[in-house]
Amino acid sequence: MNEIIGKFAREGILIEDNAYFRLKEMGDPATASSEIIVKIKKNGGGKFTLLTSEMLDDLFEVAEEIEDPSEIKAAGPISVLRERKFDFRVITDTSKRSYTSGEIGDMISYFNSRFSCLRDLLKRRPELKSHVPIADLRGGDDAVSIIGIINDIRTTKNNHRMLELEDETGEITVVVHNENHKLFEKSEKLVRDEVIGVQGAKKGRFVVASEIFHPGVPRIQEKEMDFSVAFISDVHIGSETFLEDAFTRFIKWINGDFGTEEQMNIAADVKYLVVAGDIVDGIGIYPGQEKELIIKDIHEQYEEAARLFGEIRDDMKIVMIPGNHDASRIAEPQPAIPEEYAEPLYSLKNVEFLSNPSMVSLDGIKTLIYHGRSFDDMAMSVNGLSHERSDLIMEELLEKRHLAPIYGERTPLASEIEDHLVIDDVPHILHTGHVHINSYKKYKGIHLINSGTFQSQTEFQKIYNIVPTCGQVPVLNRGVMKLLEFS
Ligand code: D5M
Ligand code: FE
Ligand code: ZN
């Protein structure tokens, strides 16, 4: 974006930060810059002018006051900006904050970070206010409460459940009796490495649980939206199973050139397009993948992605995170798609590249974006959870306040100094992909959205019996979920 600063600098105009950021959000910043320069010159701007945000406001007012329709046309980019004022903020992006030296010390600090964040949330519950360190538990205590991380889960021969719970002082075995039906059922959804609170009684070497607590989420106050957001993921450009025709129809729709009148009205209202990973198919992701690739070079895959995403109208803000097929580090949190692999994509000025996961504010709507790799582990570890019902998995992850609680299974997690996959801030929207099957649910006021795929069933998915839902795009239309079909 230095070209904008350069353009002004050549005219002797300096841009204040705020004005620069607003300019950057414009549909067509280059043309708008030219028009602003003309206006400043026309108003007799001196040799050195500082373009402030207030000056931009004044320039809009000038545009508003113009009566002659031909003049309104001339002020095109400015009036576009007036209609589309973006209030886009990045709340968390770990791209630059995420680092690890790979030492065992990091692992300890990683779990300490996870434990202390989640314990702070659990401590707010009245039942856990007086929790004690595990090492301080005495025999014969009637009622105790503890908070710990689950190291292991087993079922005994008599079908009771045993949890090994650890805090920074020690470890204890928690027993969940199968006669306590409700609690036993709840304990079926527990997974290794999550942080829970337990209320119970100390009996010998064990704590017999009477209640189990998750950090949990409160019901949130829903926020009004006067705009729409479209969600996609798992485009898999470069694969022979990428559904280019469906994707092209989707682009035509978002540009206002396709669909029924109602669908076109929705398209006109869409300000943001969120892309939750697997933009390209990548290379060497699974054995035998090259046989299914049409584009066998990662740079060329992103070049093709840039061609397609570049067709989207440029007053659409596109927010993009990587998935397990993209060229980022594979361990989560994954930094943004690296520019060195995706230069042509980076030349699109309306795309924001963020980490997986990331949290952004779209005009005040907090949106947590996560590709969803951990769903494989959740579906495998918990009875009743499956790829088809990723909405239920999202519910579970929100209650656990962690996007990928299980360490050391299929989801590679980087043991950072901090655990960036803890959900410390409750979002209005949780958007995921990866499973290639659309799902939607509103849970405690939070929109849980899985955006399916633009890839038809692969050989790999046939083996796992995964039947994708293709070319179906969820759109949050002023707070109401609409699923649009492009396949
Ligand atoms: O994931 C495509 C689909 O394949 C999605 O439904 C998840 C599933 N998948 C991917 N990897 C695994 C493993 N390792 N086990 C089980 N299921 C898996 P994609 O990331 O696009 O390849
Ligand atoms: Fe995918
Ligand atoms: Zn994936």
Write a structural description.
The protein is an alpha/beta fold and 487 residues long. The protein has 15 helices and 19 strands. The protein has helices at 2-10, 17-24, 29-42, 53-65, 69-74, 76-83, 104-122, 181-187, 244-254, 261-269, 298-309, 343-346, 374-381, 390-400, 459-463; strands at 13-15, 49-51, 88-93, 144-155, 161-166, 171-176, 195-203, 206-213, 228-232, 270-276, 317-321, 351-353, 358-362, 365-370, 429-432, 439-443, 446-450, 472-477, 480-485. The strands form four sheets. A six-stranded mixed beta sheet has the order 3-13-14-15-17-16, covered by helices on one side. A hairpin with a 2-residue loop joins strand 18 and strand 19 (480-485). The two termini are 36 Å apart. The structure holds 2'-deoxyadenosine-5'-monophosphate (D5M), fe (iii) ion and zinc ion. Zinc ion is lined by residues 278, 323-325, 371, 434. Zinc ion binds next to loops.
